[in-house]
Design goal:
The complex is a heterodimer of chains A (250) and B (177). Chain A has 250 residues and is mainly alpha-helical. In chain A, 63% of the residues lie in helices and 8% in strands. The chains are: A mainly alpha (250), B alpha+beta (177). The interface between A and B is medium-sized, with 22 and 20 residues.
Chain lengths: 250, 177
């Protein structure tokens, strides 16, 4: 069949196009409506669920994590919702409270570690600080990460650094940690070691001497490390990692 | 130097604690930790005076376990910091010999004076020896205080008209009011 070439043909074609679009839109609208309904139902169920298991959610760390995941899938953030239903639930409050306590621990240990603390140490200090009465409210590392991540909104003064192997460190002073700084922390944390020299850093990460020296000196300048000059080479020590290695006093 | 029971802070096992830190903020934390440690150590060991040349060998400044020691010049600079708060005083120009006041002289003065008033010893003449080494003061914190330090403390009280020092050939003592 010969395709229409006249004006009529073009108009007819346009009309068809428009019809298709209309039908397409209709279908889409239907789908969206459907999905919204479904989501709404799910939300209601989720809220029911949350109310029913409120105590469970507060007390059980694993349960809490799964609940968070569930919320995340449908775009509900119980942490950020201070109003309405979720505030009644008080889950956001839980994390706010935790976040404040994290800041407190970071400030309290700042003199020692210069504002860098491992998540493990943070957790044990925090549990100690919360005291006996709250012992039944176990805090998981996942909770801490969630709460600490919320603190990012305060700008560069607060960040969570992954140091590999599922280990994290919380950095609570202004000033960015570069990739190189992160790599150093990662290396040391993996080796469960609190110190390193320029030479050994070069050999372990195949860095040029300048790069290693610069990175270590920068961390020294940020108060994150101390230098020891009573060995053959200058050795840089990280008090934040020192506790992990020897788990001394306090 | 007898062994002293000290609760060593974590820094004592931290090798760079024995190297003066270049970063100002870290250094001030370091110096303040040293100040606290020195005073606590001297208090526990009842050390009133020290000579840096000898003291640098003490466990305080010398952690054999990690093979680190604090340099004499650093010790002197920390003692000078202590002096600013009245917790130490250099006794010679070379700054080698020092008085250490884990209580400042003012604090000592009020400690001693409270003891005197609590024991009703006003208007009595006591020898320096009786105060620092007498059987009655054995349990007091100032027991064992060297006479030279004691005199400095008593001079403060004398300035406040709370006592009068008697320094004659046959009698070295003090009368409290």
């Amino acid at each position: 069949m010969r395709r229409g070439v006249g004006l009529g043909a073009i108009q007819k074609h346009k009309l068809e196009q428009a019809k298709y679009t209309n039908i397409g839109n209709e279908i889409q609208e239907n789908q969206i409506e459907q999905m919204t309904k479904q989501l709404e139902v799910f939300r209601v169920h989720l809220e029911d669920f949350a109310t029913k298991h409120k105590n469970e959610i507060k007390k059980n760390g694993e349960f809490r994590r799964q609940f968070q995941d569930m919320c995340a899938t449908i775009g509900v953030d119980p942490l950020s919702s201070g109003k309405g239903f979720w505030s009644v639930l008080g889950i956001g409050d839980y994390y706010y409270e935790l976040a404040i306590q994290i800041v407190e621990v970071c400030l309290a240990t700042n003199t020692k570690n210069g504002g860098l603390i491992s998540l493990d140490e943070l957790r044990s200090k925090l549990i100690k600080a919360r005291g006996q009465s709250r012992l039944h409210q176990e805090i998981s590392k996942d909770d801490l990460l969630r709460a600490a991540q919320k603190l990012k909104i305060f700008g560069s003064g607060f960040s969570v650094v992954s140091v590999g192997n599922g280990q994290y460190m919380v950095h609570s002073v202004p000033g960015e940690l570069s990739m190189d700084h992160g790599a150093i922390l990662q290396l040391l944390s993996t080796k469960n070691q609190s110190f390193i020299s320029v030479k050994s850093l070069c050999s372990q990460l195949s860095w040029k001497e300048d790069r290693a020296k610069q990175a270590l000196e920068q961390m020294l300048d940020q108060g994150l490390s101390w230098v020891d000059l009573q060995d053959d080479d200058a050795v840089y020590y990280f008090p934040s990692l020192f506790t992990i290695a020897s788990s001394t006093d306090e | 130097m007898a062994d002293v029971e000290v609760n060593w802070p974590w820094q004592y096992s931290f090798p760079p604690f024995f190297t003066l830190q270049p970063h100002p903020e870290t250094r001030s934390k370091q110096v303040s930790a040293w100040k606290t440690l020195i005073l606590e150590y001297c208090k526990k060991a009842k050390i009133y005076t020290l000579d840096v040349r000898e003291a640098s060998q003490w466990p305080l400044f010398n952690n054999a376990a990690i093979n680190r020691k604090l340099d004499s010049s650093v010790i002197i600079s920390i003692l000078s910091e202590l002096a600013k708060n009245g917790n130490a005083a250099a006794l010679d120009k070379g700054r080698n010999r020092w008085d250490i006041y884990w209580h400042t002289l003012e604090e000592w003065a009020s400690i001693i004076y409270s003891y005197i008033s609590d024991s009703g010893l006003q208007n009595t003449v006591l020898t320096f020896y009786e105060i620092s080494n007498g059987a009655d003061t054995e349990s007091q914190e100032f027991a064992g205080m060297p006479i030279e330090v004691l005199i400095k403390v008593l001079r403060l009280l004398e300035n406040d008209q709370k006592c009068e020092l008697i320094l004659s050939n046959d009698m070295q003592g003090v009368k409290f009011f």
